[in-house]
Design brief:
- This protein has 17 helices and no strands.
- It has about 400 residues and is mainly α.
- It has one domain.
- Helix 2 packs antiparallel against helix 10.
- The protein is globular and about 60 Å long.
- The two termini are about 25 Å apart.
Length: about 400
Amino acid sequence: MHHVKKKIWEGSLVLLITFNIFNLLNFIFQFAMVRFLDLAEYGVLASLFSMIYILGVFSESIPTVLSKYTTNESNKGKLKNILKKSLKKSIYVSFLFFGLYLLLSVVLSLKLNIPYLLLIITGLMIFFAFFGSVTRGVMQGRKKFFSLGWNLIIESAIKLVLGVSLVLIGWGVYGAMFATVVGAMFAFIVSFIPLRPIIKSKEQKASTPDIYKYTWPVFVLTSVIIIFYSIDVLIARLVFPDILAGQYAVASTIAKIIFVGTFPISKVMFPLSAEKSLDTGHQKKVLVNSLMLILILIGIGLVITALIPEFIIFIFKGYIVKESASVLFLLSIATGLISLSNLFVLYNLSIGRIKGVYLFIFLLVLEALMLYVFSSSIIVFSLAFIAASLILLIASILLIRR
């Protein structure tokens, strides 16, 4: 168990460093966009990124499945077979989803008041959500945390440099979204480099028993978590005027740093707790060690947002936006609760506990209804977000105790 505990802390450290470089670059990107775009334009950009996060259900559910099935497979030929089959299926499925997305975007364009072309550019992320998730899932399963982290850094670095350049020459939100797609595409191309030993090996047929039975619950739970922490910005755009929605989006973007900052710990925990060599007691110790790390980081985030919310908004926006500062701490609480829920959900998936997942779909619907109904002000809206997130956390804990 000492060896496994060491892996958690070492793997978490590697991913925390690389992920936080990735997050820092993304923060600088958002920082630049807030400065170079007005509040209404940034509200549009934040809504588009919320859609990317929702599309990210594929980029998180697929790696989770592949990590589960590659963690305990050491034969490179069989790993190549898993990689090859997964990429082939991703091609077909991504085109299907892109077609459906184009139809749905007609309605979204009218409801959210976002140009259809912008939605099309955003939809291109579907392809790289599928393709990149396959290669990153294999890296995660093989515990190539350093390579995984650097691949994310490459994506965010290209997005930052290209995005700022295009916005400065007048492309606006279009430039930001085009850079986002290019960054994801390039990251996918270079993701094959750390997988060269697998790619060069002689392919052997791999057995993946119950992979489809396992994939659906993973997709449902991952979808719920990602949509849960992304949909607030979209609903805010529906219920609030453009400027107020933009002010909410600024606070929401900052608060989400807690989720993305703690996410590497859950990512490290997953392949470690999924190892067949561990008994139930040791698996729970993996969970406890991961939980301790996440609680420390959430606590730091809450203290900072409680003490200096206006200063944080000033650093981010360049001037104090009182409406954003008034809800920053509340949104940080909600995001912290979702971060804990994500840890418990991934733990259940890692040990193959997949019953009772459909309850979480109801919780997602409940969240949307609560946010829509309790929207008399952004403070009431944020309190509803906390309440919904707390219900999600309770459900996640109860799932472990089943």
